[in-house]
Amino acid sequence: MSQEKNEINEIPFKYLPMGAWATWGWSLVYSFPIIGFIFLCINSLRSSNIARRNHARSYLCVYLIVFLLLAATFAVLYYLGLLDGIIEYINDLIYLY
């Protein structure tokens, strides 16, 4: 057991894996709207820890996929002429309450 701890202690910080709590904590930080996106961009470009950088890049990929799916959905709704009806329905709901 002590040999294993010695091996882990010899690994440079750049290559240390993230623990489960660190992964959970960074995921929580990334979920905040503006501050989380800033931390996401910083951590995805920084090279201080490769595991944290890869975790941030995976979140950026998820955000990119969601953005592209939403854009495609709105484009299809606009092309089919359904977007105006949806916007009118939402406005009616807003003004109703």
Give the structure's gist in a few sentences.
This protein is mostly helical and 97 residues long. Helix content is 79%, strand content 0%. Helix 2 packs parallel to helix 4.
The SSE string, one letter per element, is: HHHHH
Runs in which pLDDT lies below 50 for 5 or more consecutive residues are none
* Helical run tally: 5
- State mean pLDDT (0 to 100 scale): 91
Number of strands: 0
- How can the largest sheet be summarized? none
Derived from helix and strand composition plus strand pairing, the structural class reads mainly alpha
End-to-end gap: 64 Å
Mass-distribution shape: elongated
The portion of residues forming beta strands comes to: under 5%
Helix content percent band? over 70%
**Structural Rg:** 21 Å
Structure, explained:
With 97 residues, the chain is mainly alpha-helical. Helices cover 79% and strands 0% of the residues. The protein contains five helices and no strands.
List the helices and strands and how they pair.
Blueprint: H1 2-10, H2 20-30, H3 34-45, H4 50-80, H5 83-96
What would the keywords be for this entry?
97 residues; mainly alpha; 5 helices; 0% strand; elongated
